[in-house]
Input
Amino acid sequence: MKRLLSNDFIALILRLLVLYIILLCTQVVFYIYNYHSIGAIQWSALPLMLKGALKFDTISILYLNSAFLALSLLPFRFREKKWYQQMLFWIYTITNTLGLIVLNLADTVYYRYTFKRITAEELHFFRENDNTGDILWKSIGENWYLVLVAIALIALMVYLYKKVPYQGSAITKRWLYYPVQILLLGLGVAIYFIGIRSSFDRKAIPATVGHAAFYTQTAAQTSVILSNPFCTLRTLRAQQFQTLHYFDDATVEKIFTPYHYPSGNFKYQIGPKNIIIFVLESFNREHSQFMMPHLNPNGGYTPFLDSLMREGFAFTNAYSNGRKSIEALPSILASIPSYQVPFALLPEAVGEMKALPTILEENGYSTHFFCGATENQMGFEAIGKMTGIRHFHNRADFEKQHPNGDYANVWGIWDMDFLQFTEQEINKLQKPFFTTIYTLTSHHPFDLPQEYADKMPAGVNPLQPCVAYTDLSIRKFFEKAQKEPWFQNTLFIFVADHAGGYNAHEESQTTKGSTAIIYFMYTPDHSLQGLSAEVSQQLDIMPTTLGLIGYKQPYFAFGRDAFNEPERQAVATNCVNQIYQFISDSLSLYSNGEQTLYAFTANDTLQKTNILNLNNASQKAANNYFKAILQSYTQHVKRKQYVVKQ
Output
């Protein structure tokens, strides 16, 4: 048995386990050093935090030790030689001394000043500043005791490495040795890539810095479970965040500010109703006959939602603030947009935030998120936690109640089944409640349950039958929900996460049209009815909802209260193919951040005539407003400031 446990493959595993111990030590030091900034951690939070730390530490260790792993798994006998093992020792020691111990202890000091871990952004900063060396030497002098900690950790790492017993393979026959070693190499490669992706699921999005919020109770705690080189390498792969500066700070605040100070004179005040937001996967505006009758003379693909629009308040000129699902939730729940890089993937996303769920919870609401996908797929639950949602209901919860049966496609539970489950669970919720429901079935690959595959309208593209199926699923949800006592006292908000990739009509294939979405509100008691053809966006949902329930405190949002803030311009902004888009009631502008590239009038629905050269007064004013929004966004992201400053 002793011989079996001291072979070269087991030795490699034990050597890697040593690094987990070292990283855990650096995280403990990090927390102690920054305790006053991070705050106390409850014992009940530790299991989930340790799970998150294991995930991010695995990625850090595998990234950093790629060469060591490859050399340790080469299927040749010379790796058993003393000189080869000595080479591996020095590669291991030097690599992990610099990449794990030194870098993470440097993080410990750096966090105190920036409230974030070192990322690729800092590499650019250090490279461009001549005084980087002076700063480092000064920091070492001020934190000399951390140098002692580093020496102790290096000594511990070397000691534990040398305590790992190593013997070459016991297999002497060549015909057996090489196949076994190749098999172990393949196993090692498989484990490596599973560890790097932190999932067995090929569809899972690789872990990001923002995903750490899923495992912690506060934003500050995320830095405790994160580690380097994960933070640096993952942000290195992401596109660098573009900082935009056009005006001085005072000028920007005069033109645009995300700080809202409600007057208290509300046009509509519907009281403290329950709130349900349906986030509809890929619900392009062109699917609705009510929204775009000229494109759907024979009926659209959302007949039930159209019936609700007629009885509710419809925003017929609405646009998404992103092109991906991961960009929708920050826009809807926190009124924070995404531009060239999804906000949720930015390291700066983990900052102090007072989003819609947090505000509602402070006012007595229970907060929930329903999605038929697996836990934290697409990072939804991590984003939800960042915005203040407390309770999550996903595929696992559904399958506990329905252990048998074919209820899912590749993304998750079919909308029909999951919405029936959701309605049952809502009946159990503490009132008043705030609930976000994210639909899935109208996502590629656009397949339907067998019993519905031939019953939906064919459509002109594969997305439209799935949209019709989700519309039917919501109808069935309403048929049950309207019998419940909570139904009449509920505000329903329907909004697409983004427009789908399939656009049947030329009008929807323009840059502007490709972001046109369905958005409306519905109250069963008919306390909110009407129609607005003004430009609106997902960012407007949070401020408009707060106005409807009569919230009077200052709050942070990039959108506008569509009913109570006439002084704010009705606009929509997003980024399409790395180009910033600005949409107002009169025109659309397009910029690369440095200069405006195109301009089209609102009446030019096919965007055929570029009017940039006109550069009239209204165009200049719109351009300044556009720039002020972009600058304000980049400034607040850089500062990680998503609350009203005192």
Remarks:
- DSSP finds 22 helices and 17 strands in the chain.
